[in-house]
Structure formats: structure tokens, C-alpha cells
Amino acid sequence: MKETLSQYIAEYKKQMQLGNVPKAYKGLMEYMMDLRTHFKNNFTDYTVGSFYQGYMDMTYFPVAPIVLKERKLKLSIVFDHSKAQFEIWLSGQNRKIQNEYLNLFKQKGLNKDYIITKNPDSIIELVVAENPNFKDLDNVTTAIEKAIVKFTMDIANVLE
Q1: Which of 45, 125, 130, 151 is least enclosed, having the fewest CB within 10 Å?
Q2: What is the rounded distance in angstroms from the CA atom of residue 159 to the CA atom of residue 89?
């Protein structure tokens, strides 16, 4: 039997009344906005883009180091809600640019940690924190910082 919007809303209402989902979502949005501010204040040579809250599928904001921005590429710090994990996605300014770089990365190859995707919103993805410790957000932030810097260097090396 196909579920209807009415059935989904009934379940949604039930979960909202329990109170855990709104608290978790609010805390996550606050962390992501703080993380964006952290990158804006501490990675001054990066362009930090707008915050996308999403539809409880993904929440992200883009960061573009000069070496990638020159090539019309950017990285996005993504929280995947269904997996409850942090990822970094490399994407292009438009689909044409993404396809050009997708073909290039397929030819040159990358470290096995990087996943060349079929996702229309990304070229390459990297899982940064598969099971983030939300009791220690400073360590989560540090892991994301290190991954952004390494991802940028790895992509720049392939592009040389």
C-alpha cells in the first residue's frame, strides 16, 4: 500500500510531539552555522558561500579555495541527514564543468578514500566523519578542517 501525505504527516506530528527531532535538528543547524562562521573567520583565503538548510536530506555550505575557484570548482561541507555523517563534495560551477572534471578525475585516478560519484550535485565525495561525536564538536570541526585542506591539496596535485 502506497503511503499518503496524510500518513506521513501523522507520523511527522507524532515524532515532533516527542520532541527529539526538533531539538536534534536545531542543534545541528546551530553547529553548521557556527562551522560556516568558523571557516569564514579562519580560512580567509577561501570564499565561503551561503548556508543551505535543506529539506532534512542534506545541509551544506560551500567553500572555495583560490586554487579551485580559479577552475570554477568548489568544495561543500555537507551533513547527510539520512546517514548522520559529514562529507565533503567537490562540484563545479555548472554541469558542463562538472562533466569535464569528472572525466579528468576518472582518467587520472584518485586515492581510494575519494568516491567518484553519479550524484548530479558532485564530482567527488569524501566521508569525513561517518559517526561524528556530537559530544565533542571541536574534534568534529578539526576533522573537517583537516579534510578540507587535504582534499584541496589532493585535487590541486591532480590538476597540476
Answers
A1: 45
A2: 17
pLDDT of residue 65: 95
Contact 98, 90 (CB under 8 A): no
64 DSSP 8-state letter: E
pLDDT at residue number 159: 87
Closest CA to 127 of 138, 110, 112: 112
Residue 69 is predicted with a pLDDT of 95
Regions in the chain scoring below 70 on pLDDT:
1
Long-range contacts, 116-120 (Cβ 8 Å, 24+)? 119/89, 120/95
Q: How far apart, in whole angstroms, are the C-alpha atoms of residue 120 and residue 6? A: 30
Cα–chain center distance at 91: 11
**What does the chain come to in residues?**
160
Secondary structure letter of residue 52 according to DSSP: B
Contact 63, 151 (CB under 8 A): no
Residue 127 has, within 13 A of its CA and on its CB side, a CA count of 11
Q: What is the pTM of this model?
A: 0.91
What span, in angstroms and rounded, lies between the C-alpha atoms of 83 and 95? 26
